[in-house]
Write a structure and sequence with these properties.
This protein is mainly β and about 190 residues long. The chain has strands at about 1-5, 10-15, 25-30, 40-45, 50-55, 60-65, 70-75, 90-95, 100-105, 110-115, 125-130, 135-140, 145-150, 155-165, 170-180. The radius of gyration is 17 Å and the shape is globular.
């Protein structure tokens, strides 16, 4: 079990044993850069890499993961270098095929940044898209990977994007779902 702690700038790893008297045992605590604010994390499809989204610095910290520990952190910016204004990263997801990673930024920028996941776990920038609304608090990718839906909390709508399966590029479908302050989007099984 990995736990992000935005206030303490840490990611803590616990082992889990359901039959133990104390089911969680501390394995490792990784100190992140001060003031980064780790918010969410995702594992690569093969489980070898962990990507931590830092809300306060709008960065992604990539780690190798083995034996319950995080190794060799590398940070990736989720905003254009020239951007000046209020930001705040919110959500991070990997496409169902495990080939692309996406991260959203709120504040004044309101974007989703896309990255190709390379064989060594490194991230290669693909594109940045406007979320076409304000406050992209949550987004999700449909189980087939064809669509990415963004919940723009402050503009009260879900924006639907086509997702190119080969390139990871997003394009607007012009479809909107009006809903009051969407905060969490999830596809559920049948």
């Amino acid at each position: 079990l990995l736990v992000t702690d935005l206030g303490n700038d840490t990611v803590t790893v616990y082992s889990y044993n359901a039959s133990a008297i104390v089911p969680l045992q501390l394995i490792h605590t990784e100190k992140m850069n001060g003031g980064s604010g780790p918010r969410h994390l995702v594992f690569s499809k093969n489980g070898k890499y962990v990507y931590v989204l830092n809300e306060l610095t709008s960065t992604i910290t990539s780690f190798n993961f083995a034996f319950g520990k995080l190794y060799s952190p590398v940070q990736t910016e989720t905003l254009p270098k020239a951007f000046a204004g209020k930001t705040g990263s919110a959500e991070i997801l990997i496409s169902p095929d495990g080939k692309f990673l996406y991260a959203s930024n709120r504040g004044d920028v309101n974007t989703i940044s896309g990255y190709k996941i390379l064989r060594n776990g490194a991230l290669q920038f693909v594109a940045e898209n406007s979320t076409l609304g304000k406050g992209p608090r949550s987004f999700t990718i449909d189980p087939n990977g064809k669509y990415l839906l963004v919940g723009n909390q402050q503009s009260n709508e879900i924006v639907v994007f086509n997702r190119n399966l080969r390139t990871g590029i997003l394009t607007d479908t012009k479809k909107r779902i009006l809903v009051c302050a969407p905060a969490c989007l999830v596809f559920v099984g049948k």
